[in-house]
C-alpha cells in the first residue's frame, strides 16, 4: 500500500473516531438529563432529613444504566394522562411530619408511547455504538470508513433529536423543582412543617412544635411517669420560648393541653407537691 493510500485511510479513520466520539458525548448528555429529572422527581423525608434527600436521590441513580434510566423516566417521571398518583411511602407514622414529593409530566397516551419507543431505540443505538459498532464496518479501508461516517452522522441526528426533547422535558421538571424550593422556603411551609399549622389555620396537633416541646419537657422533668405542669412550662419557656399557647389560639397552657388531646392532665398532690400534672396519653404518638 502506498504512503498516499495509508494517509487517506488514517484520515478517514480519524473522522470516524471524531464522529463516534461526538455520538458518545451526546449520549452521555442524554443520560445526564435523565438523571437530573429523576433526581428531582421524587424526594422523601422528614423536616430534618429533607435537606439531604436530594443528595441521597442523586447517589441512588448515579450508577444506573441508560436502559434503567429510561424505564424509570417513562414509568415515574413522564407518565400517561390519567395515571394513578403514587401513594405515600410505607413504614412511617402517619402522625409524624413527613414530606413525600412526586413530580411528573403527563403526556397523552399516544405521545407517551412514542416517547417510550423512541427512548428505547436510543438505548439500543447506544449499545450498538458502544459495543458493536466496530464489528459492522471495516475501518481498515477507505470505503468502510466512509460507510461508517454516513452511519454515524445518521446516528448523531437521531441522538440529537432525543437530546433536544429531553432538554425540553428537563426544563419543565426544573421549573417544578424551583416552585417546590420556593414553597419549602415560604413561611407557610415552615408553619405547617415545624408548627403543624396549615395555611387555612387548621392545627394538626400531633405535629405541632408546642406538643413536641411538651413531650421533651416530659422526658426531662417527669417524676414517676408524671410531670408538673408549671415545671414543664418553665422548661419550654427556657428551651423553646417561641412555643406559646397563644400561637395556637389558646389562652392558657391547660386549655392547650385539653385542645391537643395528646396528654392526660390531672390535679393532685404528687411527691408532696400539689398542682396540675400531666403525662402522654398511652395511644398518643411520641
Architecture overview:
The structure is a single chain. The protein is mainly α. Helix content is 61%, strand content 11%. The protein is built from 9 helices and 7 strands; from the N terminus they run H-E-H-H-E-E-E-H-H-H-H-E-H-H-E-E. The strands form 3 sheets. It has a 3-stranded antiparallel beta sheet. Helix 1 packs antiparallel against helix 2, helix 1 runs parallel beside helix 3 and helix 4 runs antiparallel to helix 5. The longest helix has 43 residues. The N and C termini lie far apart (84 Å). The mean pLDDT is 87.
Question: Which characteristics define this entry?
Answer:
single chain; 286 residues; mainly alpha; 3-stranded antiparallel β-sheet; two-stranded antiparallel ribbon; rod-shaped; OST-HTH/LOTUS domain-containing protein; OST-HTH/LOTUS_dom; LOTUS-like
Could you state the order of secondary-structure elements as H and E? HEHHEEEHHHHEHHEE
Provide the residue-averaged pLDDT: 87
Shape descriptor reads rod-shaped
**Spatial gap, N to C terminus:** 84 Å
Secondary structure category: mainly alpha
Radius of gyration: 31 Å
Number of strands: 7
Strand order of the largest sheet: 5-7-6
The main sheet comes to: 3 strands, antiparallel
- Estimate the strand proportion: 5-15%
Number of helices: 9
Pfam family, one: OST-HTH
Organism: Stenotrophomonas riyadhensis
Domain HTH OST-type: 208-270
Protein name: OST-HTH/LOTUS domain-containing protein
